Amino acid sequence: MGLCLFANDGDVSSPDLSLSCSGFNRFRQRLARAEGFELPEMRGFGGDRSWGDVSTSLAPLLDHPDDDGELSVAECDAVLPRLEEIIARWAAEGGDVLLRQHVEYGRELVVVLRLCVEKGVELIFG
């Protein structure tokens, strides 16, 4: 089973990020580690740690159901700069096949988030 993150712009030709649920989970786990915490420790991911205990502009992306709902334009705008920083750092590091895949996912997601902000539309998790 997979999921697709896309701009709610009504244009089926707009860029999107399509990946497996397990791939998205591994990507978000790596993002959380980049922010200094482990995703499985967090409420909603098997742990007891409150999201109020961590400080990251990526929280709207990380603390979100895999395949339902949306991010607002403001949330997309807030997530974008930090996501770009992390992806640039990962790309500079090089690394294994999984890291390179996460860089690609990140780059694709940056394109979609920018589109959401530019068009003033939500990011849909579907």
Descriptive account of the structure:
The protein has a 4-stranded antiparallel sheet with strand order 2-1-4-3. The chain has 4 helices and 4 strands; from the N terminus they run ββααβααβ. The chain is α+β, with helices and mostly antiparallel strands and 126 residues long. The chain is globular and about 40 Å long.
Can you give the helix content as a percent range? 40-55%
Label the structural class: alpha+beta
The helix/strand order is EEHHEHHE
The major beta sheet can be summarized as:
4 strands, antiparallel
How far is the first residue's CA from the last residue's CA? 11 Å
Radius of gyration: 14 Å
Pick out the low-confidence regions.
none
The spatial strand order of the largest sheet comes to 2-1-4-3
Q: Which quaternary structure do these chains form?
A: single chain
List the defining traits of the structure above.
126 residues; 4 helices; 49% helix
